[in-house]
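Hi support team,

I'm filing this because I wasn't sure whether my run with adenosine-5'-diphosphate finished correctly. The job status page said complete, but I'd like someone to confirm that the output block is well-formed before I use it downstream. Pasting the exact inputs I used:
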Amino acid sequence: AEDELAKAGWLLNMQHLSLGDKIGEGEFGAVLQGEYMGQKVAVKNIKCDVTAQVFLAETAAMTKVQHKNLVRLLGVILHNGLYIVMEFMSKGSLVNFLRTRGRLVIHTRQLLQFSLNVSDGMDYLESKKLVHRDLAARNILISEDNMAKVSDFGLAKVDLKQEDLTRIPVKWTAPEALKHNKFSTKSDVWSFGVLLWEIFSYGRTPYPKMSLKEVCEKIENGYRMEAPEHCPPYVYALMNSCWETDPGKRPSFKKLREKLEKELRALQEG
Ligand code: ADP
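And here is everything the job wrote out:
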């Protein structure tokens, strides 16, 4: 993976990187703000060598995708483990953005715009036949100009390889993925439904007050979350279409994007 990255020009130079404040804490290490050759960046440092090797392989996959709604990878640096250098998303994670601002500040139009941004990025991943596996509002980041972008794609697979069940985000994962490990674009679509619920509830945790065991059992019996307060009915209908038990009945990301585009246009014209 290292040779491949080097050949393709993805190995960056530590000398051009200056590190600043810590802006987040990831599962595998701190996320720092920084500057790479004059550009503001976010840097993830993975100190554990074994993890770094796995990430390096996954990063090779990330270099093959580029889209305005996917957080852009600038490259990696092999130094103290691994540094992953990404575009800087100044407004942080979508879930925090929604929680700290709330309904009085963020209008439905903005919520729809975020939903559309994510469906656009996912439509692109779908076209590349890439499965995200960890689509959730905590993994969507917001840029200075309020653009929502999907992050942690490619990297999401790392945790699951270890088959550590405690790491699976149960409340976001489709039933067939939970039970039979069948992850697919359609299981990403299920997660997108939960993400829509998070967006329209301004960052609440899904299935409030329910234990993970309870969520699994109830979903199995056909239970689905209620619409968040003030959620437009067409958005709730979209969520429910994502939560079809039969993966084949769920819409594609392309379809979701088209529907969201249409609703946003109607809202802007109306
Ligand atoms: P991990 O997936 O390793 O657990 P995350 O990617 O979720 O870590 O990063 C943890 C936090 O760091 C995020 O919630 C966010 O606040 C911050 N962060 C991550 N990437 C960026 C970025 N590109 N720009 C700005 N902040 C980021």
